[in-house]
Specification:
Elements: E1 2-7, E2 14-18, E3 32-37, E4 40-50, E5 63-65, H1 73-85, H2 90-96, H3 100-103, E6 111-117, H4 129-141, E7 143-145, H5 146-153, H6 157-165, E8 169-175, H7 196-209, H8 225-236, E9 256-261, H9 267-280, E10 284-288, H10 296-306, E11 315-318, H11 324-335, E12 341-344, E13 356-362, H12 379-390, E14 393-398, H13 403-410, E15 415-419, E16 430-435, H14 436-442, H15 451-462, E17 466-470, E18 479-481, E19 499-501, E20 506-508, E21 515-517, E22 533-535, H16 539-549, E23 555-558, H17 568-577, E24 583-586, E25 599-604, H18 618-630, E26 641-646, H19 652-658, H20 662-676, E27 683-691, H21 694-712, E28 719-731, E29 734-743, H22 747-759, E30 767-772
Parallel strand pairs: 9-14, 9-15, 10-12, 10-13, 11-12, 13-14, 16-26, 17-24, 17-25, 23-24, 25-26
Antiparallel strand pairs: 1-2, 1-4, 3-4, 3-5, 6-7, 6-8, 18-22, 19-20, 20-21, 27-29, 27-30, 28-29
Helix pairs in contact: 1-2, 4-6, 7-9, 18-19, 19-20, 21-22
The structure holds adenosine-5'-diphosphate and zinc ion (ZN).
Amino acid sequence: MIARVTLEIALRKEFDYLIPPGLTGQVDVGSRVQVPFGQRKVLGCVTALAEESAHTRLKPILKVIGAQTLVTPKILKLARWIGDYYCCAPEVALKSVLPEAVRHEQAGWRELLYVRALPFSGELPKLAKRQKDVWHIIEERRELPLKELLELAQTTAVTIRRLEDKGLVSVAPQISERDPYGREHILPSQPLPLNDAQAKALAAIKAAMNGVIEAEGDKPALVSRTEALAHLHAVGGPHNSKADEPVNGKKTPARTFLLHGVTGSGKTEVYLQAIAYALEQGKGAIVLVPEISLTPQTVERFKARFSSGSLQTLVAVLHSHLSAGERHDEWHKIRQGRARIVIGARSAIFAPVEPLGLIIVDEEHEHTYKQQEAPRYHARDVAIVRGQMEGATVVLGSATPSLESFYNCSQGKYTLLRMIERADDKKMPVVRIVDMRQTLRKGTSTPIFSPQLKEAIAQRLDRSEQAILFLNRRGYATILQCPLCGFVAGCPNCSLSLTFHRQEQKLCCHVCAHTEPVPPVCPNEKCRNPAIRYSGLGTQRVEETLAKLFPHARIKRMDSDALKRKDDFRRILGDFRVGKIDILVGTQMIAKGLHFPNVTLVGIIYADLALHQPDFRASERTFQLLTQVAGRAGRGDVEGEVFVQAFTPFHPAIQYARRHDFAGFYEQEIGFREQLKYPPFSRIALLTLKGRNEEKVKFSAEHLKREVEKALGGIKDLVLAGPAPAPLLRAQTYYRYQIMLRARRMTALSKSLAELTRAIALPEDVTLSVDIDPADFG
Ligand code: ADP
Ligand code: ZN
């Protein structure tokens, strides 16, 4: 027998190997194997078995990794789709479907020595006092790790060996599973009685899970495409004359739902009950959440419902804060079918849950679902493809859906489910926009706190309520600038200014992490002004100014600088929850999914920051950010208040966020997208060339453009832009030029791009990367 193997080293080819007699029956499609390649031993994945090969003198497979095939046929198919659609080599796609800790043979189960009581007949043999004490512990526990026993009994291994000699106990290695949440004490929870909106949403999802495809407007239980359109038109009139055409002339069955529910509308409860239904049907579920909201709180809600008592292993958790060993164990629990529910970040979409009934993508609009290195897949989109391949129902949830997903509802591709009220009867917070231009007119330097916000903070401190202040920028001051000559301290490797970090007294690049000391005078030879100063604003400076204004307040900062250790995140949130902190200052890290009943004030220091990005999604991001942050206020008994400080207070993204008006925002933004032919009216492929020599990169980019024109000229509606310097031209000493391609459909474009990138000749030191559906244009 011959096995066809994709190797992990990037070669874009498959190689045939012999299955030696010693491994007969152990090699299957999806097996991870180690094979000889030249002088080396490399890892790979079997993608097919065959009777014979076109090649002679085949080498044998050296060994098989793991007892079960690691890549199941379904996941293999998904990996192939990723390779094709995202334009990357199959081995690159395959690599991403298994966690590092599973792919390599070094990781394995942890074995510990266990002491176990053996059955004995007749009288207990005569034991010394010490031995008897130890024996009682073992007898009671039946079995326990040796280490734990030694601690418990305050004894040494010699005593245990005596008991072993007497035939009372056995000491043997045994697998001990690592449980990343083993220390938490989780109280079981019961399903809540659902309110109307929740019940309707759940009924629609259950119907789809039963294979019932609802026709448009058929059932009042479900907001159909017609209703979605009617809703949209009621808001702003028809924006798109083609909106009624079915996509590609055929209809996709309504197995994908968009659950648009305001923060606190009880989406999680709907997820929980839908998962319970999948279990009832004998199926499993995958829940994706952005890495940032994978807090113990989130995991706990799922474990509390499904993982208590005898069901302890039902929920597996996969994310980057686990140790390699923990990840190994969690993954294998899923592969062995013991864990039926997986909750995790992006890559959990590849969890080998089988059969799969349901996929939930919470906060579906989050751009962290897009992987920023090859394979550059979008986990939400992979979820939809996987759902279609495996007949699983997919639920995308968000308070601020992406324009793409909402548009897909209007096109009848997804079914829209809406929950417009908070489940807990709490009111939506009052949002006040503060015009910072007025504050600026009164003072001289750039203001941080408007009088209104200062007053509101003081009030909260008086009433022992809590506040969150939010600024999407780390550091102390953005830049170091000389007021005389205008010199700005920049990074020597990137086309970016350096950020001042007060505590370390250093300038730091947020792209390449370059640091340098603060110059005592302006570095400009001709200037040498000693009064060089900091302008702009970062979280550190907010924290410091706050401490001066409110010397008695307990303030904590939460951003990636303040959180150096794995546990910091948990600890600070824990302290905040129990009221040991009055004011939390942070970056977007604190904007998501957190739930603090005593927070009655949220302040957004500069709402405009996110608007000034060279990205067609800048407006959408700002709207989402403001809405999400505002959702943090007033989750307890007291009504919440949100202050949004802005220099452009009348920008639509800010105004619609103030009114919690998603539909209004969508309506005006979608018009703009259609006019400029941006997604969802097109699909984008971004080609980036990078190299250390700017001339060479530029020249290669022009060459690439001509080749693209030649090869892709036949694709309908193709729009080609560039080459242009990337918004951040120079990053980590590399110059970058970009070409942007837009077309109605991606499939044909990906295919031709894959061929082109394979064939094109570029200078050695210039590399080309392809990003399909890019989330970031930096
Ligand atoms: P979301 O996920 O939409 O932000 P959550 O699921 O976190 O909302 O729900 C917000 C709050 O409302 C939670 O405290 C939750 O326990 C509560 N809740 C949800 N559904 C119900 C319900 N049917 N009855 C009472 N309380 C509910
Ligand atoms: Zn840099």
